[in-house]
Amino acid sequence: MKKPGAVTFNHNPLLAKGLPVSRPRLVLIGLLLGSITLVARAAYLQGFNNDFLKAKGESRYARVIEIPATRGRITDRNGDIMAVSTPVSSIWAIPPDAKLTPSDTRQLAGLLEMEVEDVSRRLATQGDFVYLKRQLSPDIARRIAELKLPGIHQQREYRRYYPSGEVMAHVLGFTGIDDKGQEGVELAFEGDLAGQPGSRRVIRDRRGQIVEDVESIRGPRDGQDVALAIDVKLQYLAHTALQQAIETHKAKAGAIVVLDVRSGEVLALVNAPTFNPNNRANLSGAQLRNRVLTDIYEPGSTMKPFIAALALERGFVKAETVINTDPGRITIGRATISDVKRHGPLTVAQVIQKSSNVGTVRMAQHFAPDEMWRMFDSLGFGSPLGLGFPGEVGGRLRAAKTWKPIEQATMSFGHGISATLMQMAHAYLVFARDGELLPLTLTRVSETPTGAKQVFSVATARKMREILELATGPGGTAPKAQVPGYRVAGKTGTAHKLEGGRYTNKYISSFVGFAPVSDPRIVVAVMIDEPTAGKHYGGTVAAPVFSRVTEGALRALGVAPDAPLVPLQVAGGNGEKRETPRGNM
To answer: For position 138, what pLDDT does the model report?
Structure first.
């Protein structure tokens, strides 16, 4: 008899029916196959293909780190070091591991010359890596290492140092925080200077410290040294002369270029204002610009010798041919071009010596626009010179078919055409090299570069040397360009600045010349932008700078004098005629 409260399951229909015999067998077979698969996979990974597990394991402790290459040095033509990379250290942290006490943080911030709050904020960064400060001196890095702070690490880097400072700033440029070229030669020759970093495999602990150096994967290839054509002695000389001229004439800016006539090497390249590449804090764009290669200006009367040379070359005139410049002005269309004073009849040589606008225009009227354009183009105007320098420009030389008669006239004396100072210095090589134009180079060369072209005949170039020497004599516009013991030749330029399509009362004073006349060795070009101390003529502002630089350069190069040491003959007054277009142009 069933007891009260007893429970039976005999009458449950679900339990009354048995399980199929095949189901447990299938489960058993499935479990057996899974076990076999796992065993086979384990055997395969550990016995036949253990690279996967090895890679996974190594990823937790092994690292491939980069070995930086030493950046190549930059030297001047005599081997003096202009730029060199020095070892420094950067301090970085693993934020989760950097458990610093307030005292530790204060000590670290003091050595880093940072605010405590700034260090604490960086250490609170989410992630496994953060720079605290880059490029510290080895001494500071050593003192930080001695603190043995958890999570604080160092890595070796290089910092570029420029011994010549602001004197070579625009030539060399500078590198960024990662030691890669940003401006100047540093950028232009990045491929040669940078080299190729290497790599090595190491084992790190959980704190990021290297505990074992496993193997070297690839050794670093250090960068190549670059030897510039620049002579640091001439660079210092030009820099000093330019700074003095800018201060004397209270000018906005200025630039100087010195070229080697024989090789086309750039012996000096100076700009002002300048900057210190070792400390570039608070720099402006004006300081960083390499005006010699990136700024264009209307060269004014320094263009006149090319018109005279073309007229001589074509046989339209001779040096003694008389050109009537009366009444001191010439009208073309509705515009009038004037000389400062009435000269009357002048020979071709006197037109350049006295810097007559009217005489130059009368010579230019012999040429078709295409003929003048081809001459300007062959001299390198309108196109970059191809020095490879960052930001180099080609100036402005419009197509001849667009020229109006008045525009052709003004271009003959350097208005309506623009060029860089480097282009002007380069073009004057045709007079110094017997009519031949030579490519320029920023790097030192042992042989004369190929690619020279004959622009004018030897006879024309030598006759122009005689004419340009007259311009630096007592009756010329630049007697202050004379150098004791040497014969010099050149041409002044005094041009109004063009702003917003209109000529202003601001000036660019310039002088381009060469020496010694008997056997030219150097070309020197000087440009002073916006002199404001009361003088603005090229013969008064720029010519004395040419004289100082040329004298020092010739003596430094050991060039023998070709003239007697006699007192210089300087004309009275300002010694120059004002050169500017007049009328509605």
So the answer is: 86
